[in-house]
């Protein structure tokens, strides 16, 4: 293969990439279909609760990412 | 509503925003693009957080989002999700863009494209077409601003006068303080919006249900109108496919002002820190969405869904909150329009006129500031006053194009072999499809036009790149030293570094 792509070069990097992809998949079809019910959770529609789960999951993944990136001194 | 206080409060906000914008200069000379364009790359994490957050939360949050909740229901939350994904995009790409800017002197997105592909023509093309979407966006926000002044003044400030007032304020502080004004005013506007949204949302909830329990409101919706709690929504038009492709297309639309904002950071780490917490800002959407849901029962016969929050406030809330809502909505629309106006002026001077007329850097910096005036007076103001019906169409096409520039970024961050002609071919193919599927055959099979564009764009980009000359090796190496500081891993292998020279051979 003469034309390489930029991909993670460590286990932590791959873990982070997978976490990013999982976050994105969580917000689109087919996963979103699992939460598409007219049900309430904590008094809020299920889809709104799931949206906030995704939002805070993104924050969590980036916090972990900060530790990885800054932990090994790589900017 | 006959009180003068809402107008006084709204105009008071305009005066404060103007003062903050003017003071933002703080003795800095604005005669270089480094200063006027990217604030000397000096912004700290809190300012950057509010700058990006306020810039992305437009008048849509105060008008469109409650309107969507009122007309469609929870489908509106696709916005919160894609904004969170934009934070992931900022976290990964922002620090690299900042390093490009800091090391190679870029102040615009188009400069980076021109440099990566060694093609001022490609940079100018990207700048001009991105400007179409940017101007349409700025015009829509300006119309929103003028509409707020019209409502808050009880019709005493007509739309044309509102457009002039808002643009004049923005023009003065943008000319004097440039990106520093955007940073400071957006920080103020961002904080104001957060407070106003929650104050209005909770007050409206209390006035509608007699308490602060959202559960009562949603329980009623569940019992009487459950279609508001699921996709495709009450309007029946937010299918899974449109939800999904809208999120993906929005996520990959690297709008020029956002790129410039990343380059304003004081360090790469600053961007990462700001991006990390950025999704938390989007809780601002929830209380305004609640007002939209309340409107379903309180204002069942509204002609324009996007006026639901304002109409409800004027009918049920105290004048102080109505004024704050006016100020918050105006803050949202101004904070979104000013980065786009600044960006169009900056990139037109730097990426179109400078290479075309071989202008000096000093003259280009002056030109960028002066261009604000004709752009506002001859383009944005007339369009905003005329309110053309095709504006939303222009915006959709413009945003559709923004996502079609994706190959340029793939070649910048992931694939060294991307060629100038490959990028151009991909953009043109994708743009034609996007335009066709936005205007002639709208979103076939319920899939976003921009997504259809990418389906053709990306294979064309790869195929043409592989059969046309790669960019000079030294340039590619320069970029990928930042994009891939640890070298490359090849598909199917692990932790493998590749020699850069091998990447650019055909």
Write the layout of secondary structure elements.
The complex is a heterodimer of chains A (75) and B (506).
Chain A: H1 11-26, H2 31-34, E1 40-41, E2 44-45, H3 46-71
Antiparallel strand pairs in A: 1-2
Chain B: H1 5-23, H2 33-38, H3 45-56, H4 59-71, H5 78-104, H6 109-116, H7 120-152, H8 159-209, H9 214-224, H10 240-251, H11 256-263, H12 268-281, H13 285-298, H14 308-316, H15 319-357, H16 361-386, H17 391-404, H18 406-413, H19 420-439, H20 449-467, H21 473-483, H22 500-503
Helix pairs in contact in B: 1-8, 1-15, 3-8, 3-12, 3-15, 4-13, 4-15, 5-10, 5-12, 6-7, 7-8, 7-15, 7-16, 7-17, 8-13, 8-15, 8-16, 11-15, 15-16, 17-19, 17-20, 18-19, 19-20
Give a summary of the structure in a few sentences.
Chain A is mainly α.
Report the mean per-residue pLDDT of chain A as an integer.
89
Helix content of chain A: 55-70%
Low-confidence spans of chain B? 491-506
Q: By helix and strand content of chain B, what is the structural category?
A: mainly alpha
Description:
The complex is a heterodimer of chains A (75) and B (506). Chain A is mostly helical and 75 residues long. Chain A has one domain. Chain A is 61% helix and 5% strand. Chain A has helices at 11-26, 31-34, 46-71; strands spanning 40-41, 44-45. Chain A has a two-stranded antiparallel ribbon. In chain A, helix 1 runs antiparallel to helix 3. The two termini of chain A are 28 Å apart. By secondary structure, chain B is mainly alpha-helical. Chain B folds into 2 domains: 5-404, Sodium/glucose cotransporter (Up-down Bundle); 405-506, no CATH class. Mean pLDDT of chain B is 88; it is low at 491-506. Chain B: Its main location: membrane.
């Amino acid at each position: 293969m003469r034309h390489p792509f930029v991909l993670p070069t460590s286990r932590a990097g791959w873990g982070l990439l997978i976490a990013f992809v999982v976050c994105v998949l969580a917000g689109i079809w087919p996963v979103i279909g699992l939460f598409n019910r007219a049900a309430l959770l904590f008094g809020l529609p299920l889809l709104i609760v799931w949206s906030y789960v995704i939002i805070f999951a993104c924050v969590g993944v980036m916090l972990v990412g900060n530790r990885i990136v800054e932990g090994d001194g790589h900017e | 509503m006959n009180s003068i206080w809402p107008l006084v409060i709204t105009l008071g906000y305009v005066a404060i925003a103007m003062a903050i914008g003017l003071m933002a200069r703080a003795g800095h000379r604005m005669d270089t693009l480094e200063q006027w364009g990217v604030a000397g790359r000096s912004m700290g994490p809190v300012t950057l957080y509010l700058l990006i957050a306020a810039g992305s939360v437009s008048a849509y949050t105060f008008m469109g989002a409650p309107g969507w909740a009122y007309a469609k229901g929870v489908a509106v939350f696709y916005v919160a999700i894609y904004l969170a994904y934009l934070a992931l995009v900022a976290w990964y790409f922002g620090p690299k863009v900042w390093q490009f800017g800091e090391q190679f002197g870029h102040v615009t997105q188009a400069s980076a494209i021109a440099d990566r592909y060694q093609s001022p023509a490609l940079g100018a093309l990207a700048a001009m077409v991105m400007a179409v979407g940017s101007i349409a966006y700025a015009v829509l926000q300006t119309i929103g601003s003028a509409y707020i002044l019209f409502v808050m003044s009880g019709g005493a400030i007509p739309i044309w006068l509102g457009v002039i007032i808002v643009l004049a304020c923005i023009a003065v502080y943008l000319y004097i303080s440039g990106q520093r004004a955007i940073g400071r005013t957006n920080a103020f506007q961002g904080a104001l919006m957060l407070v106003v949204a929650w104050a209005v949302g909770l007050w409206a909830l209390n006035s509608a249900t007699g308490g602060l329990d959202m559960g009562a409101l949603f329980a009623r919706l569940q019992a009487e109108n459950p279609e508001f709690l699921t996709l495709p929504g009450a309007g029946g038009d937010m299918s899974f496919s449109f939800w999904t492709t809208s999120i993906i297309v929005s996520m990959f639309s690297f709008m020029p002002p956002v790129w410039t904002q990343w380059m304003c950071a004081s360090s790469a780490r600053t961007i990462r820190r700001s991006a990390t917490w950025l999704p938390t800002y989007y809780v601002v959407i929830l209380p305004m969405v609640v007002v939209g849901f309340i409107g379903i029962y309180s204002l069942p016969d509204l002609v324009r869904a996007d006026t639901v929050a304002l109409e409800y406030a004027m009918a049920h809330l105290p004048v102080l909150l109505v004024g704050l809502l006016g100020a918050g909505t105006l803050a949202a629309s101004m904070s979104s329009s000013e980065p786009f106006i600044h960006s169009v002026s900056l990139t037109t001077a730097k990426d179109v006129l400078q290479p075309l007329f071989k202008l000096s850097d000093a003259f280009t910096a002056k030109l960028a500031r002066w261009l604000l005036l004709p752009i506002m007076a001859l383009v944005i103001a007339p369009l905003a006053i005329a309110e053309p019906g095709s504006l939303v169409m222009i915006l959709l096409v413009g945003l559709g194009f923004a996502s079609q520039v994706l190959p340029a970024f793939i070649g910048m961050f992931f694939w060294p072999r991307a060629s100038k002609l490959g990028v151009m071919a991909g953009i043109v193919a994708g743009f034609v499809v996007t335009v066709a599927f936005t205007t002639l055959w709208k979103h076939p099979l319920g899939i976003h036009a921009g997504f259809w564009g990418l389906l053709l764009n990306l294979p064309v980009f790869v195929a043409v790149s592989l059969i046309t000359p790669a960019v000079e090796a030294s340039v590619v190496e320069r970029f990928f030293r930042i994009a891939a500081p640890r070298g490359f891993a090849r598909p199917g292998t692990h932790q493998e570094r590749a020699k850069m020279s091998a990447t650019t051979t055909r």
